[in-house]
Structures are given as C-alpha cells and as structure tokens.
Amino acid sequence: MTLPVFSLLSPLVVLSMALVFTRHTGRRPGLLPRMAEAATLGALGLALGGALQLLISGPANMALMGDVLAVRLDAVSATMTVLVAFVGWVVVRYSRSYLDGEAREGAFHGWMLAALASVLLLVQAASLPMLIACFVAIGLVMRQLLLFYPDRPEARRAAAKFSLVWGAGDAALVLATLLLVQSYGSVSLAVLNAAAAEGLTPMGHAAVALVVLSAVFKTAAFPLHGWLTEVMEAPTPVSALLHAGIINAGGMLLIVTSGLIQASAGAMAALVMLGGLTALFGAVVMLTQSAVKTALAWSTVAQMGFMLLQCGLGLWALALLHIVAHSLYKAHAFLSSGGAIQAVLAVRRPGPIAAPDLSAVGKSFALALALYALVALGFAATLGPKSAQALALGAILIFGVAYLVAQGLADAAPKALTLRTLAASLGAAVAYFAFHTLAEALWAAHLPAPPVAGPLEWALIVLAVLSFGGVAVAQALFPLWAHHPATAGLRVHIANGLYLNALLDRAIGGLRVTLKH
Q1: What is the 8-class DSSP label of residue 484?
Q2: Which residue of 18, 69, 374, 381 pairs with 114 in a disulfide if CB–CB is 3.0 to 4.6 A?
Q3: In Å, how far are 373, 376, 377 from 433, measured between CA atoms?
Q4: Helix or strand or coil: residue 72?
C-alpha cells in the first residue's frame, strides 16, 4: 500500500519549527524567523511532492489505531495541502517584517506555525477523530493569536466569542461522530460516505444535521457571524491566515463529508437557504463599511455564505474551486490592506456614474441573460450539458455584472462604457463555464455528482435565483434612490449589521452570568 509520505511530512516540518520557538518567545529571536520562513517553504515543496506522487502513483492513505487516526492523499487533499502551504509561506514571510521588534515576536511565530501545521493536517484527515483533533488544535492556537495583545478589551472579547462559537462547532461534530459510530460502526470518511449512498438511518439524519451545524459555526454563517468581524484586533497576518485559510475549514468539513450531506434533502435545503441569506446579508453590509479590514471581513461572511449555497446545490467541485480562489484573493487583500488608502488617493477621481432608469435595468438584465444563454449553449454543444444547479448558479453570478450593463445602457452613458459592460457580461459567462469545466476535471471523480433536480431542488433553485436577482436589481437602481433622506438612517442600521452582533454579545454575557451563579 502506498503511503502519503510527502504530504504528511509537510505539517510535521512546520510543527517541528513551531516547537523550537517555545524556547525563544521574546523580541528578535535571532535567525529563527528566517528559519520559520524556510520551514514553510519546505512544507510547500513537500506538498508539491505529494501532488507529484498522486500523479505518478495514484491515491494513498495511512491509518493508525484502525481508522481512528487516518490521513489520505487524493486530488482534493493534494490541492488543499498545496494551497494551505503556499498561503502559509506568504503569511509567515510577511510576518517576519510585520512583527519585527515586538516584545513577544518569537511566541507569535511559534503560534502561527502551530496553526499552519494544524490546518495542513486537517485538509489531509481521513477520519472524524482526526478532523476533531485538528479542529480543537486550531481553536486553541487561534485563541492565543487573537490574544497577542491581551491588554486590549476588544481583543479579549473577540477571542472569547471565537472560542465559544468554534468550540460549539467542535461539540456538534463530536456528537455527530458518536451518532455515526452508533449507526454505521466506523469513523472512516470513505466508509461513511459510501454507506450513506444506501440511505441514512434516523440517527444518521441527526448526525448529518449536527455536521451541518458544525460547518455553519465554523464558517461564520448568519446569525453567528459576529466573531469574524471582530478579530481585526489581532495583527494583520492573523487576519490573513484566518480569512484565507482557517475560515474555509467549515467548507472542507462539508466537502469531505459530501456523501453524507447529499443523502439528506433537509441538510441540502438548509445549506441553500442559510448560505444564500448569509451571502446576501454580508454583501449588503460590506458596501456600507468605511474601514478596509472590516469591509474585507464582511466580504468573507458573504463569500462563505455563497460557498454554503454551492454545497447545498450539490456543486461540490465548484465549492472547492471557490475555496481556492477565495483563499488566494483574501490573503492578498489583507496583506496589502495597509496601502489601500494610498492607492485610493493615487487614483483620479472618477466621473459621474450613468444613472439607469427602470427601462435600462430591464434591458440590461435581459441582455446579460441572453449572452449567458448563448455561452451556455456553446459549452453544452461542445462539452455536454450542465446540471440545473450549475446553470442556476451561473445565472446568479451573471446578475452580479448585469447592473454594470445597466450603466452602459443608460441614456447618459458613453459608447465606450456600453461596450465595456457588454464585454464584462460576456467574459463573466465564459469564465464561469470554463472554470466549472476545470473544477470538474480536477475533482469531480472524488465528489458526488449534483442530485437530479426534483421538486425540492427546483424550489430552492427558483428561490435562490429570485433572491439574488432582486438584490441585483436594487443595486442597479442604487443611483436613483441612494440620496433619498430615508436611506441615511437605513445605512446606519445596515452598517451595524442590524445589531445582530450586539444581541449575540448580550446572550454571551447572560450565559457567563448564569454559569458564574
């Protein structure tokens, strides 16, 4: 049996370096920060070696204590190991300069490496106990990183809220594991996913609900998103690692248990509805934020919601592609956030926006959807038809550029703007199907195919398309109603996330008082 040697060595190299920092926790610990960067670069090389091993020798796995502690090497784990190692190397390299001279510089590097090692092991886990152990380790390490400035009340509050929500997700996953062992007698992800294909037992349905609940906690879904928007008190490298890597752990949990999740229609429906609501809510609040890092945090909330929506539609390969793209984008966005203000000031002030009327909006959406339909027919004729869920998701994405087309079709719009917006709509449609084809080629063999659309699936598809379409229409008409006096007060409420985070703070405070007494 082939063993995943290279991939497994990747987290071990990083963890070994983290242990070195336990003896050098102070300011400027010599050459150790450079050695930490070298360790992460070595981990990236080993991850690439694992991907090469997969191409040459095929999938591999290793298990200890039966299937309790198990790791795997397949297309999904190899992709995520390379991604996490690359993002980790970039973040650690950035941290070497960013934390230079801090009083607890060595401790920071040690905790950062420990977090990276935990995530590297998580994406290779092949059993539920291994997943739980990695999740617990991530929670403990991230708490230390969030408390890097322990004298700040905001940092203590963010760390407490993160620990509570993350720990609740761990507890849900532990209960799910106990139920699955009782139902199927195994903790192996491969065995459980295969068994679910034959149907879920009543206890299995309860376990799947708990797995979904755990993923919801860990992806900062509505209405428990508040902890993710408050972790900005930590140093920027922590924010980058959290938003580019650790927040995706909930999505990975859903993907590696996709066989179980897809066997439950209720779980899929819950993911579509909760994910869609989170995506819309996060996107709207993000537009009202003035601070760069806070806007990025709300962007992550919206992106995680959209990823949950993809999982609920059964588009597992696209959800994995979303995780890869979001990780790379968000790591760059956070690490370059310090220069955002200078970049804005360096740009010439834009001219007036062409304000479209209702007629232009209607024409723009019709035109964008017509171009999308032509591209879909072209791909179907050459590469085969796509599922109803995939077509619906593409339509939702096209709505995102349709409001640009509306500006291009406005009476006051110059001809160049019209041509650019039409090209953007056409380009978005082509890119969507091209990336969908790429994702299927890379990972579809290791993930379930989307379910055949029945009455429930069609109802969810129509609900998602209409919801995102309505928001897109409102966005297109924004220049017409943005300056109405009533919107000033509404903007304040939206900027505060409709005060849901304040309600969560009160609930946590009440829980603490109850526990003390």
Answers
A1: S
A2: 18
A3: 11, 7, 11
A4: strand
Measure Cα distances from 507 to 164, 224, 278, 504, 511 in Å: 12, 11, 20, 5, 6
Q: How many helices (H) and strands (E) does the chain have?
A: 23, 2
How far apart CA 97 and CA 257 sit, in angstroms, is: 39
Asked if the peptide bond before residue 237 counts as cis, ω within 30 degrees of 0, the response is no
Structural contact between residues 408 and 364, judged by C-beta atoms closer than 8 angstroms: yes
* pLDDT tens figures, 61-74: 888 877 888 899 99
Q: CA 213, CA 181: separation in Å to the nearest integer? A: 18
Report residue 411: phi and psi, to 5°: -60, -35
Distance CA 51, CA 49 (A): 5
> Distance between CA atoms of 368 and 50, rounded to whole angstroms?
42
Residue with tokens 């598809």: 461
Residues in the chain: 517
Q: How many other C-beta atoms are found inside a 10 Å radius of the C-beta of residue 242?
A: 26
**pTM, 2 dp:** 0.87
**Per-residue pLDDT tens over the stretch 277-292:** 898 888 888 877 777 7
**Contact yes or no for 13/113 (Cβ under 8 A):** no
- Cβ burial of 364 (10 Å; 0-12, 13-18, 19+) is buried
